[in-house]
Amino acid sequence: MQMTDAEKNNMGRLTRRSVVGGLAALGIVGAHAGSSSPSRAASRLTPYGVAVGLEPFRHDPLYRQALIEHADIIVPMNMLKWASLRYDKGKIDFERADEIVSFARAHGKSVRGHTLLWSDYNPKWVDELSSAREAERVLVNHIEQVVDHYRGIIPSWDVVNEVVAHDPLEDGDWRKGIWQDLLGARHVEIAFRAAARTDPTAKLVINEYDLENTGLRYDARRNAILNIVRNLQDQNIPVHGVGLQAHLYAERAIDQKGLGSFIQTLEQMGVKILITELDVIDWRLSRNPVKRDIGVANVVAEFLEAVYAAGRPESIVTWGITDRYSWIKDVFKRKDGAPNRPLPMDRNYRPKPFMDVLQKYRIL
Ligand code: G3I
User: Fold this and answer.
1) Among 78, 248, 317, which is best to mutate for testing ligand 1, by the most ligand atoms less than 8 A from CB?
2) pTM: predicted TM-score of the whole model, two decimal places
3) Could you give the 3-state DSSP secondary structure of residue 53?
């Protein structure tokens, strides 16, 4: 991963405005972003995105300011999920998702859609579906309506989320859940077909967790993803990307080799990598905040080094931007009671070493 002298020079000269202008000209960020032509360095920049929670978005002006300042891409964290859009059967409510999408567009940001199918966070009536016929009808109808609503606005979708079993060695490739239970492996094909049919220009992504580390379970999970991609391609169903969620456990080793060959195999199949939910699970790191922030940044650097050694990701999205708001505290609370520090900015919106690592890799 060598930088030319010209690129090193450009690093110093890049301003956010020139970068965003370049991305806009390339169609990577929204048309409002700027009009300057892309410099060579800007054309090599990996766009950075943030998943946005509705509550802080509505109530914390500093949160919105951080998004305006730092994000090229906005991902509604929960508002495009079934339980948000379709709480009541027979109704679809885009209002809250549109609130975030409109903000993104008004500020020249691109948007990623998360997610058209997941076995979690579905409304009760979906979990109660009981026939394959009804499940397919409901699933196709949902994807058509949602993708159509955002046609020309959301260019990239997590079509399916977390469809691989937590441990494929124990349970086989597929994760159990309403769609798998009623439709079997076909649920992924149905979802991708419906999305492709509705917006043939959209980039369609399989989004998955636990693909980065060393161990047989991780090998099996990477293999399961490759099987799914192969199966879709064998049937001429378009699949453009694999999303590495990258909720990184600080105490687990990144599998440089395994992750690298996974990315290269996908590349040979014409499938890109995206980093879709990056953050660091810091529950086992030092209590000392300075040491912890360095530990967190090191994990991110180790991960990005492995990814960039194998190929450039299409985008890097973090799951939130400030330690003030993150799901990590709900699931990976520290035993010593110290607040988690999983994201690029601290609770007071000061950039942490994590942010410096992002800046470095985005430009490589
Ligand atoms: O909005 C309500 C709020 O009004 C209410 O007061 C509060 C009380 O619990 O709940 C709020 O809703 C919560 C919502 O997050 C917003 O904070 C839901 O209960 C909670 O279930 C929901 O959790 C989200 C979870 O997905 C389930 O959808 C997390 O924020 C979100 O970070 C998490 O994201 C997932 C990705 O989609 C897939 N990959 C893993 C990732 C982390 O679990």
Assistant:
1) 78
2) 0.90
3) coil
